[in-house]
Amino acid sequence: MLTSQDVKEYAKACGADLCGIASMDRFEGAPLQCDPRQIAPDAKSMIVLGFRILRGALRGIEEGTYFTAYAGMGYAGINFVRMPVVIWELCNAIEDAGYETVPIPNNFPWNATNVSGWVKGVEQEYDPAHTRPVAPGRAAPDVFIQLRIAAFCAGLGEIGWSKMFLTPEFGPRQRIGAIITDAPLEPDPIYAGPPMCARCMACVQQCSGSCLPADKSVKVTVAGRELEWADIDFEQCSKFFCGAAHTHNPFMCSAEDEEGFNQPVWEAQRYKMAPMYEYGRALEGASGCIRACMIHLEEQGKLKNKFEKPFRVRKPWRLERDW
Ligand code: SF4
Ligand code: SF4
Question: pLDDT tens across 113-166, in order?
């Protein structure tokens, strides 16, 4: 009999840093297009895995001298290399034990939905010009799993004001993948440890694109808990995390460059810097929602992954336009 303990031990042995388990009833009330039960109606459990972003992957951006480590090892490399391999290994072991597994890596570029989870420009709904349900009452493909909600349902932590998932181990410094299975695994309790996000608003103040409002939020009820986060401007973030702010992008050297980096998301991600694994260059190094938040949570002593020295030891750099 496969147990939750077996799954967690093997997940860690394969290379996951965090593993929690949700029962499928915790997704009751999810919008149809985001409901994992639409993918596997007979599933019993969702296994949610966290993969740490090395703190040092952000060092070169913090110093303004080396941007490849975060885009490669801290972003695309986790989503497109490490995470799928670990999910694969764990799925193999669970299927060897006689239970089906649906691997859910962090949104691949060939997913039929966009990175916000909605099909081509349509909020909350599918676009009938782009996809359609195969039968009445079913979600249109592709269902988009909200991995942060999944991580919450699996007890790994909470969602902060920045909408980043915060764990007691790493704060905002992980990426999330999942597996849906018909294995009846014991679920973890919903996170009930010390609150992580005290609404310090460092994420709001240090976001290079002003994408996070301090006074406008989204509220949802998940697994019987009311969650609230900033009503983030995703379109703005999709440009600015790839370097649309001249203040945060040393590869922007002229007015023409600025225009290039401010193109619609997919063109902007390809402007000047080649994308990593078909994914945009995360040139801005998540200045607000990861770096500022991590610094704050470390200062508060809230994270289990402790370091000898504080992350920010020099005044943050900032470029001014000179064209
Ligand atoms: S920076 Fe502060 S307000 Fe923002 S998510 Fe982190 S803890 Fe919450
Ligand atoms: S990734 Fe960057 S632009 Fe997007 S919300 Fe975070 S800090 Fe702001």
Answer: 665 555 554 445 666 777 889 999 999 888 889 999 999 999 999 999 999 999
Q: What is the DSSP string of 186-208?
A: PPPPPP-SS-S-----HHHHH-T
Any ligand 2 atom below 6 A from CB of 242 = no
Kindly report, residue by residue over 252-265, the tens digit of the pLDDT: 999 999 999 888 77
Tell me if 211 CB under 6 Å of ligand 2: yes
Which residue's CA lies nearest to atom 2 of ligand 2? Answer: 286
Distance from Cα 207 to the centre of ligand 1, integer Å: 11
CB-based contact 74:59 (threshold 8 Å):
no
Residue 162 counted as domain residue: yes
Q: What whole-number distance in Å separates Cα of residue 79 and Cα of residue 110?
A: 13
Cβ(237) to ligand 2 under 6 A? Answer: yes
- Looking at the domain assignment, is residue 37 inside a domain? yes
Which range of residues forms the domain containing residue 280?
4-188+195-299
* 62 CA → ligand 1 middle, Å: 19
Residue 284 has which token pair?
């801005």
Q: What are phi and psi of 185, to 5 degrees?
A: -100, 150
Number of structural domains, the chain?
1
Nearest ligand to the CA of 172 is: 1
pTM for the complete prediction? 0.95
**Domain annotation covers residue 304:** no
Nearest CA to ligand 1 atom 2: 200
Confirm whether 310 is domain-assigned. Answer: no
Could you identify the atom of ligand 1 that is nearest to the CA of residue 293? 1
Q: What is the pLDDT of residues 56-87, one digit of tens each?
A: 999 999 999 999 999 999 999 999 999 999 99
